[in-house]
């Protein structure tokens, strides 16, 4: 009887401890003074350092790097201002290319394209609370207007400092002022602070050609801003600006806003600036670094293949399989040149593959060790919230803003492809037992899908289904067993998604969708639209044909063995990732790469298992 009471108590304690970090750090008390938001487009950290008033605000207040928009810079720059006022964000690829000149009509056009985004939400919240607002400039109007495009006081912005003084003298509670550049922004900050206002500085759009990262600061307590949206001290999303200002004023945050109020944690503007450098490197140099890493990895592989034969080249081929895991330790170092980062990644991957090859004696054991090591490292990092993955060249891109925490689409697909392929290589040595296999599979599905861990709903479902098929096939149970295992894996992922709003309310985008706070149908359609657009790229389709041919050839070479069953299961997992992930074909190719590597090893005669 006592045991029955103890187990629920332990479970409740575990849930409370997991949820505690999200509840900690309540917003500061609302100030009994007006709030001024200074908007300056294209602001950089260098300009903050050069302008004394801005530098003083950042040093004496709380600061962060602001991820402005999700995706590329909007073709219509006003879209970023409307999103700021909506307290929400979406991939700019789905936004209208052009917006009507009238702000209310522009807001309606944006909402028609993405119904979950409601420009004017910030202004509506101010109006409901009886806070009189003013806007200086058309950009500021887009931020502070209500749903009808109205602002109680609207100034043209010809003399922003003078108009700011006029608005504050009229007793307004909130002013949004648009500045032409850093110098004018500094004058606005000085004028607002001189009148006792709480001041915030934000840039809706980053400088042209740069990563989507700009400086952001709020006067008051000194430190770094932390947002539950990003789970990274010193990094705030554009959607958080409006909820943060409302919280500072003690006002209710509309349910339509996707952003969260920020809190202040220890740190300095220099910490935020260095974080911006690291994230900019991830955003701007990831493809170049990846290309260098692949080129450096192929050099020893090609040389060994030409000079020593296929067998000698196999360990270097496995270096490609563990390369994603090698990017995580490299991400812990300060930003360096793409070539140096690639050399470090290649060195780690090659040495790891060689050690595994020597320890296992090569063959299927080496392949299984390499694939499962790669999957294990990624799974552990996903379970810890992606602490290293956020700075990896193969991880998500915080500057792009598609994901700020958990596991990104690419790494999720890499984990799934390497895990399913590794399972096939392991089965070539010994038939895996059902119970350990089920426990391991459930653990990885949870690591991907739990909101406080990987937070990848689509990846968790694709992995549950795909890994289930692979498990049923490698255990030689046939199609019926594969269907049963897949049903169990898919059910586990679906149950985790359904329970997420109860266990971790408002913790992630997925848990909010499961709770009905975000339109699930609309979210699925938008992700499907993004996924289908990837199939329009002929280089990706060509790569799909090449990888598929290699997997097919490898499957034929190992036909009738558990290894072949693993290749089939991994290929199906890749197809599921392409279908259930908004990265579409790109995610499918990342997953398909691993059965293709195993296929090459089969063709070389290294891991061909006995029939």
Describe the 3D structure.
The chain has helices at 2-23, 45-50, 52-60, 78-86, 103-113, 121-128, 138-144, 160-169, 182-194, 241-248, 269-307, 310-331, 338-360, 363-383, 409-427, 434-449, 457-474, 478-503, 509-514, 520-533, 538-557, 562-580, 585-603, and strands at residues 35-40, 62-67, 133-136, 153-155, 174-179, 198-202, 213-218, 223-226, 235-237, 263-265. With 611 residues, it is α/β, with parallel strands linked by helices. It has 2 domains: 16-267, 3-Layer(aba) Sandwich (Alkaline Phosphatase, subunit A), CATH 3.40.720.10; 361-603, no CATH class. Strands 1, 2, 3, 4, 5, 6, 7, 8, 9 and 10 form a 10-stranded mixed β-sheet that branches. Helix 16 (434-449) crosses helix 18. The model is unreliable at 1-31 (pLDDT under 50).
Q: Can I get a quick summary?
A:
Helix content is 60%, strand content 8%. The protein has helices at residues 2-23, 45-50, 52-60, 78-86, 103-113, 121-128, 138-144, 160-169, 182-194, 241-248, 269-307, 310-331, 338-360, 363-383, 409-427, 434-449, 457-474, 478-503, 509-514, 520-533, 538-557, 562-580, 585-603, and strands at 35-40, 62-67, 133-136, 153-155, 174-179, 198-202, 213-218, 223-226, 235-237, 263-265.
CATH C-level category of the largest domain: Alpha Beta
Give the N-to-C terminal Cα separation. Answer: 53 Å
Number of strands: 10
CATH T-level topology of the largest domain: Alkaline Phosphatase, subunit A
> Low-confidence spans: pLDDT under 50, at least 5 residues?
1-31
